[in-house]
């Protein structure tokens, strides 16, 4: 995958709340302080696997720490002013991903789609859903309708999950989170009890639908125009798709439980779906390009 050279990159949908700028020092996964209702690519699972619980205590401890943080986009605007910068830097690539994803949903949903910002943070952050740490992985907070990401997560995916990585699988992670934003705008998430778990639970259906929505964006990514009228993304190859499927497979509940948790797979605690299911639903979206095919709530066959 390549980003188009020569256009202007719009950083207005990113709020840079990292301290000291830059990517920070690759913190590994720690027990995340998940907040109420956060939906991430893997947040709830990690929380359970790594012995989380008592999230309210974590919330309390973090609530004061992160207060007063403000966004400062000046460095980001300088380093990511052209679309081609996305080919050289992860922080610029994610800016381009966010623009492409939201261009797609604005086209697909029309006025129903309301664009929203992604917060870049390092280490910890306060959100409308409470405090959170990098250990939660990227997530969407329905209460303030923002996506949150510590970009060091992409390093973690490679170093701890063994993912192949790359620009396209990174974009898939962002597109998954914006899938949660679409669910919030459409009200889909409100029919799900976030505390529920299990292979056929509403939580799993919601997560697999977000994977499918990520796939529908990917299907259209090379054609959806940005504000200047040209697509931001060019040349999605089979290798890119394979890498996205590799990432999807490494953030499935069974993979995480087997390789990063206690080693035992327990379907009753699934919240995001198995590796195979996550790959299947991303592919469903990618191959059809049709969000209507992502109705994971209407099927008995989740894969
Ligand atoms: Zn999710």
UniProtKB/TrEMBL annotation:
Major location category of this protein = membrane
Q: What is this protein called?
A: Neutral zinc metallopeptidase
Q: Which Pfam families match?
A: Zn_peptidase
Q: Which domain of life does the UniProt lineage start with?
A: Bacteria
Cell location: Membrane
What UniProt keywords apply to this chain's record, in alphabetical order? Membrane, Transmembrane, Transmembrane helix
Q: Where is the composition biased (Basic and acidic residues)?
A: 1-19
Transmembrane ranges, per UniProt, are 28-50
Q: Which InterPro entries match?
A: Uncharacterised_pept_Zn_put
- For whether the record's keyword set contains Transmembrane helix, the answer is yes
């Amino acid at each position: 995958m390549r980003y188009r050279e020569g256009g202007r990159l719009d950083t207005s949908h990113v709020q840079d709340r990292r301290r000291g700028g830059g990517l920070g020092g690759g913190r590994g996964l720690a027990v995340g302080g998940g907040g109420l209702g956060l939906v991430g690519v893997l947040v709830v699972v990690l929380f359970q696997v790594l012995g989380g619980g008592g999230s309210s205590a974590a919330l309390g401890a973090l609530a004061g720490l992160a207060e007063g943080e403000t966004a400062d986009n000046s460095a980001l605007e300088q380093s990511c002013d052209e679309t081609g910068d996305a080919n050289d830097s992860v922080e610029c690539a994610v800016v381009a991903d966010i623009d492409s994803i939201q261009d797609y949903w604005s086209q697909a949903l029309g006025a129903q789609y309301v664009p929203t910002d992604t917060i870049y943070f390092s280490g910890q952050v306060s959100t409308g859903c409470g405090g959170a740490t990098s250990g939660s992985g990227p997530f969407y907070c329905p209460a303030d309708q923002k996506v949150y990401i510590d970009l060091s997560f992409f390093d973690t995916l490679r170093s701890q999950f063994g993912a192949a990585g790359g620009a396209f699988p990174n974009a898939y992670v962002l597109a998954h989170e914006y899938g949660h934003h679409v669910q919030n705008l459409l009200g889909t998430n409100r029919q799900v009890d976030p505390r529920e778990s299990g292979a056929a639970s509403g939580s799993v259906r919601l997560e697999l639908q977000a994977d499918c929505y990520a796939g529908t964006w990917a299907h259209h990514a090379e054609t959806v125009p940005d504000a200047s009228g040209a697509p931001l993304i060019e040349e999605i190859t089979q290798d890119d798709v394979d890498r996205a499927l590799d990432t999807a497979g490494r953030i499935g509940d069974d993979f995480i439980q087997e390789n990063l948790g206690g080693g035992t797979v327990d379907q009753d605690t699934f919240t995001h779906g198995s590796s195979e299911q996550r790959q299947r639903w991303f592919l469903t979206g990618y191959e059809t390009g049709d969000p209507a095919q992502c109705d994971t709530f209407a099927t008995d066959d989740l894969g």
